[in-house]
Amino acid sequence: MFSAQGPSLRELAIQALSSVEDGYDRLAPKFDHTPFRTPESVLDATADALRPLGPFGEGLDVCCGTGAGMRVLQPLCEGRICGVDFSSGMLAQARGAHPDAEWVRADVRALPFDEGFDLAVSFGALGHFLPAERPALFAGVHRALRPGGLFAFPVGAPPPIASGWYWTLLGFDLAMRLRNAVWRPPFVMYYRTCPLHAVRDDLAGAGFTVTTTPLPSLGRRADGSARYRLVLARKAANVR
């Protein structure tokens, strides 16, 4: 799962016992050599689904990490593109890889933007927020978008209970809960705290109109349904 350029087991253990911010600062130089980076297939499928809805003006990557989301924003946005994250280490890597983009260090639960973007995206970040924190995150994205703006992110279908992935993700979440119960600072990363129905409710509560579209290039489940869907949360055109 890790290339030779990726982190060692010792480095991963240190990260796991750190806070989220410090952990990602430590992991940043080697993050793109881990399986935690959003796969290019997911980025490309997202861009393909968004292309008929564009072009867009200015774009924002929420929880940008090392900047993988720029693969989506750059071809779709005609204006500036910006990434926001609270890890200075991850932002340093992003800045080196994409010097023409704008990079902002901020807590995304209190985004420092006001109607500055037409498209916002996010990849693999929702598990870093407890359910009680999602409303503030989504409200901030809503505020950051211009009227008619779009917030888009892919969501995977839950694995069936008989699959190995179901038990792997359940075991990971249980291990993280145990770790956070006995160790401080906490490291918030859960895979099972953001089901699609709950995410839709929180987005609607923030003022978005929510639809989804399948990403068929990422495969299908045994019942024929898509393994991934793209959430499309639209800010009303007349909201000021």
TrEMBL record:
Provide the alphabetized UniProt keywords. Answer: Methyltransferase, Transferase
Q: Does the keyword Transferase apply?
A: yes
The GO molecular function terms of this record are: methyltransferase activity
For biological process, the GO terms are: methylation
Establish whether keyword Aminoacyl-tRNA synthetase is in the entry.
no
Q: Which domain of life is it from?
A: Bacteria
Matches recorded under CDD domains: AdoMet_MTases
Annotated InterPro entries = Methyltransf_25 (IPR041698), SAM-dependent_MTases_sf (IPR029063)
Tell me the ranges covered by the Methyltransferase domain, including all copies.
Answer: 60-149
Q: What protein name is recorded for this chain?
A: Methyltransferase domain-containing protein
